[in-house]
Design goal:
This protein is 42% helix and 23% strand. It contains 11 helices and 12 strands. Strands 1, 2, 3, 4, 5, 6, 7 and 12 form an 8-stranded mixed sheet that branches. Strands 9-10-8-11 form a 4-stranded antiparallel sheet. The two termini are 22 Å apart.
Protein backbone atom coordinates (compact mmCIF):
# COMPACT_ATOMS: atom_id res chain seq x y z
CA UNK A 1 0.00 0.00 0.00
CA UNK A 2 1.07 3.57 -0.60
CA UNK A 3 1.11 5.80 2.46
CA UNK A 4 -2.13 7.42 1.27
CA UNK A 5 -3.81 4.01 0.90
CA UNK A 6 -2.46 2.93 4.27
CA UNK A 7 -3.83 6.08 5.90
CA UNK A 8 -7.28 5.42 4.49
CA UNK A 9 -7.13 1.79 5.59
CA UNK A 10 -6.14 2.57 9.19
CA UNK A 11 -8.70 5.38 9.41
CA UNK A 12 -11.37 2.93 8.30
CA UNK A 13 -10.24 0.41 10.90
CA UNK A 14 -10.54 3.08 13.59
CA UNK A 15 -13.99 4.13 12.38
CA UNK A 16 -15.18 0.52 12.32
CA UNK A 17 -13.89 -0.08 15.85
CA UNK A 18 -15.11 3.17 17.43
CA UNK A 19 -18.01 4.35 15.30
CA UNK A 20 -16.41 7.69 14.47
CA UNK A 21 -13.48 8.88 12.32
CA UNK A 22 -10.10 9.52 13.94
CA UNK A 23 -9.10 13.04 14.93
CA UNK A 24 -5.38 12.31 14.48
CA UNK A 25 -3.38 10.13 12.09
CA UNK A 26 0.40 9.88 12.21
CA UNK A 27 3.03 7.72 10.51
CA UNK A 28 6.66 6.73 11.04
CA UNK A 29 8.81 4.67 8.65
CA UNK A 30 10.97 1.62 9.06
CA UNK A 31 14.51 1.79 7.79
CA UNK A 32 17.21 -0.08 5.96
CA UNK A 33 20.87 0.53 6.71
CA UNK A 34 23.01 0.79 3.60
CA UNK A 35 26.18 0.27 5.65
CA UNK A 36 27.42 0.75 9.21
CA UNK A 37 26.21 -2.30 11.13
CA UNK A 38 26.70 -2.71 14.89
CA UNK A 39 28.57 0.59 14.96
CA UNK A 40 25.87 2.79 16.51
CA UNK A 41 26.31 1.51 20.07
CA UNK A 42 30.06 1.87 19.55
CA UNK A 43 29.77 5.64 18.90
CA UNK A 44 30.54 5.11 15.20
CA UNK A 45 28.94 6.19 11.93
CA UNK A 46 25.87 4.69 10.25
CA UNK A 47 24.28 5.34 6.85
CA UNK A 48 20.59 4.37 6.94
CA UNK A 49 17.58 5.51 4.96
CA UNK A 50 13.90 5.51 5.81
CA UNK A 51 11.87 3.11 3.66
CA UNK A 52 8.38 3.35 2.16
CA UNK A 53 6.91 1.02 4.77
CA UNK A 54 5.23 2.62 7.77
CA UNK A 55 3.61 2.24 11.13
CA UNK A 56 0.41 4.31 11.08
CA UNK A 57 -1.64 5.22 14.15
CA UNK A 58 -5.17 6.63 14.03
CA UNK A 59 -6.52 8.06 17.29
CA UNK A 60 -9.15 10.20 19.00
CA UNK A 61 -10.28 11.13 22.48
CA UNK A 62 -12.53 8.46 23.99
CA UNK A 63 -16.27 8.92 24.24
CA UNK A 64 -17.06 10.53 27.58
CA UNK A 65 -13.46 11.77 27.82
CA UNK A 66 -12.31 8.68 29.75
CA UNK A 67 -8.86 8.96 31.26
CA UNK A 68 -7.42 5.66 30.06
CA UNK A 69 -5.32 5.11 26.94
CA UNK A 70 -6.60 2.22 24.86
CA UNK A 71 -4.17 0.83 22.24
CA UNK A 72 -5.10 -1.83 19.69
CA UNK A 73 -2.62 -3.27 17.19
CA UNK A 74 -3.69 -5.21 14.11
CA UNK A 75 -0.66 -7.49 14.52
CA UNK A 76 -1.66 -8.66 18.01
CA UNK A 77 -4.83 -9.90 19.66
CA UNK A 78 -4.21 -8.40 23.08
CA UNK A 79 -4.93 -4.66 23.47
CA UNK A 80 -3.08 -2.43 25.93
CA UNK A 81 -5.00 -0.34 28.44
CA UNK A 82 -2.92 2.30 30.20
CA UNK A 83 -3.71 4.73 32.99
CA UNK A 84 -1.41 7.75 32.60
CA UNK A 85 -2.22 8.78 36.18
CA UNK A 86 -0.29 5.75 37.45
CA UNK A 87 3.40 4.84 37.33
CA UNK A 88 3.85 2.84 34.15
CA UNK A 89 5.78 -0.43 34.33
CA UNK A 90 6.87 -2.80 31.56
CA UNK A 91 4.60 -5.60 30.45
CA UNK A 92 6.13 -9.10 30.39
CA UNK A 93 9.12 -9.28 28.05
CA UNK A 94 8.12 -9.84 24.45
CA UNK A 95 4.81 -7.97 24.68
CA UNK A 96 4.27 -5.57 21.77
CA UNK A 97 2.82 -2.94 24.09
CA UNK A 98 6.18 -2.32 25.79
CA UNK A 99 7.26 -0.12 22.87
CA UNK A 100 4.42 2.43 22.96
CA UNK A 101 4.06 2.19 26.75
CA UNK A 102 7.75 3.03 27.15
CA UNK A 103 7.28 6.12 24.96
CA UNK A 104 4.23 7.24 26.93
CA UNK A 105 6.24 6.81 30.14
CA UNK A 106 8.98 9.00 28.68
CA UNK A 107 6.49 11.78 27.94
CA UNK A 108 4.95 11.52 31.41
CA UNK A 109 8.44 11.76 32.96
CA UNK A 110 8.81 15.11 31.17
CA UNK A 111 5.51 16.34 32.59
CA UNK A 112 3.73 15.84 29.26
CA UNK A 113 0.47 14.01 29.90
CA UNK A 114 -1.62 13.17 26.81
CA UNK A 115 -4.59 12.08 28.96
CA UNK A 116 -6.91 9.40 27.63
CA UNK A 117 -7.23 8.43 23.98
CA UNK A 118 -8.20 5.50 21.77
CA UNK A 119 -5.74 4.37 19.08
CA UNK A 120 -5.58 1.77 16.32
CA UNK A 121 -2.09 0.79 15.12
CA UNK A 122 -1.24 -0.86 11.83
CA UNK A 123 2.17 -1.44 10.25
CA UNK A 124 3.52 -2.54 6.90
CA UNK A 125 7.09 -2.72 8.24
CA UNK A 126 7.94 -6.45 8.20
CA UNK A 127 8.16 -7.83 11.73
CA UNK A 128 11.43 -9.57 12.55
CA UNK A 129 13.00 -8.54 9.25
CA UNK A 130 15.65 -6.23 10.65
CA UNK A 131 13.89 -3.18 9.18
CA UNK A 132 13.19 -1.58 12.54
CA UNK A 133 9.50 -2.20 13.08
CA UNK A 134 10.06 -1.47 16.77
CA UNK A 135 11.52 2.00 16.19
CA UNK A 136 8.73 2.80 13.71
CA UNK A 137 6.18 1.95 16.42
CA UNK A 138 8.03 4.00 19.04
CA UNK A 139 8.47 7.04 16.81
CA UNK A 140 4.87 6.88 15.55
CA UNK A 141 3.71 6.82 19.17
CA UNK A 142 5.89 9.80 20.04
CA UNK A 143 4.61 11.70 17.00
CA UNK A 144 1.02 11.00 18.05
CA UNK A 145 1.69 12.23 21.59
CA UNK A 146 3.25 15.42 20.22
CA UNK A 147 0.15 16.26 18.20
CA UNK A 148 -2.23 15.32 21.04
CA UNK A 149 -0.34 17.44 23.57
CA UNK A 150 0.42 20.25 21.12
CA UNK A 151 4.14 20.29 21.82
CA UNK A 152 6.91 19.16 19.47
CA UNK A 153 10.05 17.75 21.01
CA UNK A 154 13.49 18.54 19.67
CA UNK A 155 14.16 15.78 17.08
CA UNK A 156 17.23 14.50 18.92
CA UNK A 157 15.37 14.43 22.23
CA UNK A 158 12.49 12.62 20.56
CA UNK A 159 14.77 9.94 19.11
CA UNK A 160 16.58 9.45 22.42
CA UNK A 161 13.27 9.19 24.30
CA UNK A 162 12.23 6.40 21.93
CA UNK A 163 15.58 4.65 22.33
CA UNK A 164 15.21 4.78 26.10
CA UNK A 165 11.75 3.23 25.79
CA UNK A 166 13.29 0.27 24.00
CA UNK A 167 16.03 -0.04 26.63
CA UNK A 168 13.86 0.24 29.72
CA UNK A 169 10.55 -1.29 28.61
CA UNK A 170 11.41 -3.72 25.80
CA UNK A 171 14.72 -4.73 27.38
CA UNK A 172 16.78 -4.30 24.20
CA UNK A 173 19.99 -2.22 24.57
CA UNK A 174 19.81 -0.86 21.01
CA UNK A 175 21.88 1.98 19.59
CA UNK A 176 20.43 5.23 18.31
CA UNK A 177 20.32 4.65 14.55
CA UNK A 178 16.83 3.23 14.16
CA UNK A 179 15.03 5.95 16.09
CA UNK A 180 17.10 8.76 14.54
CA UNK A 181 16.37 7.77 10.94
CA UNK A 182 12.67 7.19 11.66
CA UNK A 183 12.49 10.72 13.10
CA UNK A 184 14.85 12.51 10.70
CA UNK A 185 14.55 10.69 7.39
CA UNK A 186 14.22 12.80 4.27
CA UNK A 187 12.98 11.81 0.82
CA UNK A 188 15.79 10.84 -1.58
CA UNK A 189 18.44 11.14 1.12
CA UNK A 190 20.50 8.82 3.28
CA UNK A 191 21.39 9.96 6.79
CA UNK A 192 25.06 9.92 7.77
CA UNK A 193 24.77 9.87 11.53
CA UNK A 194 27.67 10.38 13.91
CA UNK A 195 26.51 8.33 16.88
CA UNK A 196 29.03 9.96 19.22
CA UNK A 197 28.21 13.62 18.62
CA UNK A 198 24.65 12.83 17.41
CA UNK A 199 25.20 15.19 14.52
CA UNK A 200 23.74 14.08 11.22
CA UNK A 201 24.18 14.97 7.57
CA UNK A 202 21.71 14.37 4.76
CA UNK A 203 23.44 12.58 1.86
CA UNK A 204 21.52 12.84 -1.44
CA UNK A 205 20.62 9.56 -3.14
CA UNK A 206 18.60 10.83 -6.09
CA UNK A 207 20.38 9.21 -9.03
CA UNK A 208 17.54 7.55 -10.97
CA UNK A 209 19.93 4.99 -12.46
CA UNK A 210 20.43 3.22 -9.11
CA UNK A 211 17.93 1.61 -6.77
CA UNK A 212 17.99 0.07 -3.32
CA UNK A 213 16.73 -3.51 -3.36
CA UNK A 214 15.72 -5.16 -0.09
CA UNK A 215 15.59 -8.95 0.14
CA UNK A 216 13.76 -10.41 3.14
CA UNK A 217 15.05 -13.94 3.71
CA UNK A 218 11.91 -14.67 5.75
CA UNK A 219 13.93 -16.42 8.41
CA UNK A 220 14.71 -15.25 11.91
CA UNK A 221 16.85 -17.40 14.14
CA UNK A 222 15.93 -17.31 17.80
CA UNK A 223 19.38 -16.78 19.31
CA UNK A 224 19.32 -13.02 18.67
CA UNK A 225 17.84 -12.17 22.07
CA UNK A 226 21.04 -13.08 23.91
CA UNK A 227 23.56 -12.56 21.11
CA UNK A 228 22.98 -8.82 20.67
CA UNK A 229 23.77 -7.89 24.31
CA UNK A 230 26.77 -10.26 24.20
CA UNK A 231 28.23 -8.43 21.17
CA UNK A 232 27.77 -5.12 22.92
CA UNK A 233 29.57 -6.37 26.04
CA UNK A 234 32.44 -7.73 23.93
CA UNK A 235 32.88 -4.34 22.25
CA UNK A 236 32.85 -2.57 25.62
CA UNK A 237 35.52 -4.96 26.88
CA UNK A 238 37.69 -4.32 23.82
CA UNK A 239 37.39 -0.55 24.33
CA UNK A 240 38.32 -0.96 28.00
CA UNK A 241 41.44 -2.93 27.09
CA UNK A 242 42.36 -0.20 24.59
CA UNK A 243 41.84 2.43 27.30
CA UNK A 244 39.11 4.19 25.34
CA UNK A 245 35.50 5.12 26.16
CA UNK A 246 34.32 3.36 22.99
CA UNK A 247 35.72 1.79 19.82
CA UNK A 248 34.98 4.95 17.84
CA UNK A 249 38.44 6.44 18.16
CA UNK A 250 40.40 3.18 17.99
CA UNK A 251 42.89 2.74 15.16
CA UNK A 252 43.66 -0.59 13.49
CA UNK A 253 47.31 -0.39 14.60
CA UNK A 254 46.33 0.09 18.25
CA UNK A 255 44.05 -2.94 18.03
CA UNK A 256 46.85 -5.08 16.61
CA UNK A 257 49.21 -3.90 19.37
CA UNK A 258 46.65 -4.93 21.99
CA UNK A 259 45.73 -8.25 20.38
CA UNK A 260 47.81 -10.34 22.79
CA UNK A 261 45.83 -8.87 25.70
CA UNK A 262 42.46 -9.77 24.20
CA UNK A 263 40.48 -12.92 23.83
CA UNK A 264 40.45 -13.80 20.12
CA UNK A 265 36.68 -13.37 19.90
CA UNK A 266 36.82 -9.93 21.51
CA UNK A 267 39.60 -8.96 19.09
CA UNK A 268 37.52 -9.98 16.07
CA UNK A 269 34.46 -8.10 17.31
CA UNK A 270 36.57 -4.95 17.64
CA UNK A 271 38.17 -5.50 14.23
CA UNK A 272 34.74 -5.52 12.62
CA UNK A 273 33.60 -2.33 14.35
CA UNK A 274 36.78 -0.37 13.64
CA UNK A 275 36.75 -1.40 9.98
CA UNK A 276 33.01 -0.82 9.61
CA UNK A 277 33.24 2.74 10.89
CA UNK A 278 35.87 3.47 8.24
CA UNK A 279 33.87 1.74 5.51
CA UNK A 280 30.77 3.79 6.35
CA UNK A 281 32.57 7.12 5.98
CA UNK A 282 34.04 6.03 2.64
CA UNK A 283 30.65 4.78 1.45
CA UNK A 284 29.04 8.16 2.17
CA UNK A 285 31.74 9.80 0.07
CA UNK A 286 31.06 7.27 -2.69
CA UNK A 287 27.33 8.02 -2.66
CA UNK A 288 27.99 11.76 -2.90
CA UNK A 289 30.24 11.11 -5.92
CA UNK A 290 27.87 8.54 -7.48
CA UNK A 291 30.76 6.06 -7.38
CA UNK A 292 28.51 3.02 -7.20
CA UNK A 293 31.13 0.30 -7.82
CA UNK A 294 33.14 1.55 -4.83
CA UNK A 295 30.05 1.72 -2.62
CA UNK A 296 29.19 -1.81 -3.70
CA UNK A 297 32.62 -3.19 -2.82
CA UNK A 298 32.38 -1.59 0.63
CA UNK A 299 28.99 -3.29 1.10
CA UNK A 300 30.47 -6.69 0.29
CA UNK A 301 33.40 -6.06 2.64
CA UNK A 302 30.90 -5.14 5.35
CA UNK A 303 29.06 -8.43 4.89
CA UNK A 304 32.21 -10.53 5.03
CA UNK A 305 33.21 -8.78 8.25
CA UNK A 306 29.77 -9.29 9.79
CA UNK A 307 29.89 -12.95 8.77
CA UNK A 308 33.43 -13.78 9.85
CA UNK A 309 34.43 -11.32 12.60
CA UNK A 310 31.12 -10.34 14.15
CA UNK A 311 29.44 -13.69 13.45
CA UNK A 312 25.90 -12.36 13.09
CA UNK A 313 25.10 -13.64 9.62
CA UNK A 314 23.47 -16.98 8.77
CA UNK A 315 23.28 -19.38 5.84
CA UNK A 316 20.23 -17.67 4.32
CA UNK A 317 21.76 -14.17 4.40
CA UNK A 318 25.01 -15.54 2.99
CA UNK A 319 23.10 -17.24 0.19
CA UNK A 320 21.51 -13.95 -0.91
CA UNK A 321 24.87 -12.18 -0.95
CA UNK A 322 26.49 -15.01 -2.90
CA UNK A 323 23.70 -14.92 -5.49
CA UNK A 324 24.08 -11.13 -5.80
CA UNK A 325 27.84 -11.50 -6.26
CA UNK A 326 27.29 -14.09 -8.97
CA UNK A 327 25.03 -11.67 -10.85
CA UNK A 328 27.73 -9.01 -10.53
CA UNK A 329 27.96 -5.52 -11.95
CA UNK A 330 27.44 -6.78 -15.51
CA UNK A 331 24.07 -8.12 -14.38
CA UNK A 332 23.26 -4.90 -12.53
CA UNK A 333 24.32 -5.55 -8.91
CA UNK A 334 26.90 -3.17 -7.46
CA UNK A 335 26.94 -4.60 -3.94
CA UNK A 336 24.95 -6.50 -1.34
CA UNK A 337 25.12 -7.15 2.39
CA UNK A 338 23.07 -8.25 5.35
CA UNK A 339 21.37 -5.40 7.17
CA UNK A 340 20.02 -5.18 10.69
CA UNK A 341 21.00 -7.10 13.79
CA UNK A 342 21.59 -10.37 11.97
CA UNK A 343 20.76 -14.08 12.32
CA UNK A 344 18.13 -13.67 9.61
CA UNK A 345 16.06 -10.79 8.34
CA UNK A 346 17.07 -8.80 5.28
CA UNK A 347 19.85 -8.09 2.84
CA UNK A 348 20.20 -4.76 1.09
CA UNK A 349 21.58 -4.42 -2.43
CA UNK A 350 22.56 -1.45 -4.55
CA UNK A 351 21.48 -2.20 -8.12
CA UNK A 352 20.95 -0.67 -11.55
CA UNK A 353 17.35 0.51 -11.82
CA UNK A 354 16.96 -0.89 -15.33
CA UNK A 355 17.83 -4.38 -14.07
CA UNK A 356 15.63 -4.50 -10.94
CA UNK A 357 13.09 -6.93 -12.32
CA UNK A 358 15.66 -9.36 -13.72
CA UNK A 359 17.74 -9.24 -10.55
CA UNK A 360 14.69 -9.79 -8.36
CA UNK A 361 13.63 -12.83 -10.37
CA UNK A 362 17.14 -14.32 -10.31
CA UNK A 363 17.59 -13.85 -6.58
CA UNK A 364 14.12 -15.23 -5.83
CA UNK A 365 14.63 -18.32 -8.00
CA UNK A 366 18.17 -19.11 -6.82
CA UNK A 367 17.35 -18.46 -3.17
CA UNK A 368 14.31 -20.75 -3.33
CA UNK A 369 16.42 -23.42 -5.02
CA UNK A 370 19.15 -23.22 -2.37
CA UNK A 371 17.03 -22.86 0.76
CA UNK A 372 13.51 -23.96 -0.07
CA UNK A 373 12.25 -20.59 1.22
CA UNK A 374 10.36 -17.89 -0.66
CA UNK A 375 12.10 -14.53 -0.32
CA UNK A 376 10.18 -11.25 -0.25
CA UNK A 377 11.86 -8.68 -2.48
CA UNK A 378 11.02 -5.03 -2.89
CA UNK A 379 12.51 -1.70 -3.91
CA UNK A 380 12.30 1.49 -1.87
CA UNK A 381 13.37 5.03 -2.46
CA UNK A 382 14.65 6.90 0.58
CA UNK A 383 11.47 8.01 2.33
CA UNK A 384 10.46 10.86 4.61
CA UNK A 385 10.63 10.46 8.37
CA UNK A 386 7.80 10.65 10.91
CA UNK A 387 4.87 12.88 9.98
CA UNK A 388 1.46 14.07 11.08
CA UNK A 389 -1.04 13.16 8.36
CA UNK A 390 -4.17 14.42 10.11
CA UNK A 391 -4.38 16.72 13.11
Amino acid sequence: MTLQELTIHVSQLFTKAHGRPPRWVVAAPGRVNLIGEHTDYNDGFVLPMAIEFYTVIAADRPVGNAKQIHLVSTCCDQPAIIDPAQLLKPYPKGMWANYPVGVIAGFLARGLNPRGFDAVIHSTVPLGGGLSSSAALEVATATLLEVIIGKKLDPVEKALLCQMAEHEFAGMPCGIMDQFISVMGRENHLLLLDCRSRRSEQVPLNDPSVAVLIVNTNVKHELTGSEYPARRQQCELAAKILGMPSLRGAMPRALEDARSRMDEVVYRRARHVIGEIERTVYAAEGVRASNWPTVGQLMYASHYSLRDDYEVSCAELDAVVQIAEAIGIKGGVYGCRMTGGGFGGCCVALVKTEAVEAISQRIAADYKKQTGIEATIFVSRPAAGAMVIKG
